[in-house]
Design a protein that fits this description.
5-stranded mixed beta sheet; 13 strands; 2 domains; Peroxisomal Thiolase, Chain A, domain 1; 10 helices; alpha/beta; globular
Length: 332
């Protein structure tokens, strides 16, 4: 294999936040036709965290962002840009990132959202890496955050059992000469599958009406089997693409941080990559699917508990609405 490429940016610090309130599978048995055994067997999820009534998306994002800055030994004044991956911001306009900018006390720097759902953090990392590589920015805060509990139909067991609320963040800065940093990123979209995971109402194609709200058109709709099928295929192909671009094999990986959507998906990706499941960072049982927050929450937990250490190679991969997907390979 060829030598790994020289990274242009690296992760300086990570952070995350999840709400205190926990909703277990047993709690869901009381409000929807499901069971703890059914959810656990089919998804691997046992509980999820749900925001309190006085929490909004930007609150969670700001807390995760501050923790990432603290871990990096930096403050908001050091930032050149804020990128927030989310599809559940405080409001349709302005960007959630604008509220985060104000809440963490950053200057008049560009702050914008990326709407790639579960792939939002991977998209954000890829964008930040490009800005740093060109010298247009030196320090970028990338956040993945979702407050999905307010856009779910809590009577739809195909969706409400899956998702949770939370935020994760990473601060990126210029790479040094020690080989640490983002080695490769690849992102993709297939709009022909846009119908498979969507919030159909509320945009120009279907403005909200009382009838639409009654039909839950402003809530998440998902074709689970279709997403399951393409997730395994596309996460594997994107992961293979970044390994090839970085000149590495799966045998040279230390960890995989895959999107925490479904334990069966993670198991299938493990098999297809020929990478042992015990080297996957897995927390789906505790948080469920937190969409764009999924990867940065898992990454930060593994960094803070000492599993992921300096110099290790970590593959991150995710797939979300669009459908959009991608993978990033980083040496920590």
């Amino acid at each position: 294999m060829s030598a790994p490429p020289t990274p242009k940016s690296r992760i300086l610090g990570t952070g995350h936040y999840v709400p205190e309130k926990v909703v277990s599978n047993v709690d869901l048995e009381k409000i929807v036709d499901t069971s703890d055994a059914w959810i656990t067997e089919r998804t691997g999820i046992r509980r999820r965290h749900v925001a309190s009534e006085n929490e909004v998306t930007s609150d969670m994002a700001a807390l995760a962002g501050r923790r990432a800055l603290e871990a990096a030994g930096l403050n908001a004044a050091d930032l050149d840009m804020i990128i927030v991956g989310t599809i559940s911001g405080d409001s349709p306009m302005p960007a959630c990132a604008a509220h985060v900018q104000q809440k963490i006390g950053a200057g008049d720097i560009p702050a914008f959202d990326v709407s790639a759902a579960c792939a939002g953090f991977i998209y954000g990392l890829t964008i930040a890496d490009q800005f740093i590589a060109t010298g247009a920015a030196r320090c970028v805060l990338v956040i993945g955050v979702e407050l999905l509990s307010r856009i779910l139909d809590w009577q739809d067991r195909t969706t409400c059992v899956l998702f949770g609320d939370g935020a994760g963040a990473a601060v990126l800065g210029p790479a040094g000469d020690d080989g640490r940093g983002i080695l490769a990123s690849r992102i993709f979209t297939d709009g022909s599958l846009a119908h498979a995971l969507t919030i159909p109402g509320g945009g120009s194609a279907e403005p909200l009406t009382p009838e639409g709200i009654a039909r839950k058109r402003n809530k998440v709709h998902m074709m689970g089997q279709e997403i399951f099928r393409v997730a395994i295929k596309n996460l594997t192909s994107a992961s293979t693409a970044v390994l090839k671009a970085a000149g590495l094999t799966s045998g040279e990986l230390d960890w995989v941080v895959a999107h925490q959507a479904n334990m069966r998906i993670i198991t299938q990706v493990s098999d297809r990559l020929s990478f042992p499941l015990e080297k996957f960072v897995i927390n789906i049982q505790e948080y469920g699917n937190t969409s764009s927050a999924s990867i940065p929450i898992a990454l930060d937990e593994a960094v803070r508990d000492g599993r992921i250490t300096e110099g290790q190679s970590v593959l991150m991969c995710a797939l979300g609405a669009g459908i959009s997907w991608g993978a990033t390979l980083v040496r920590m």
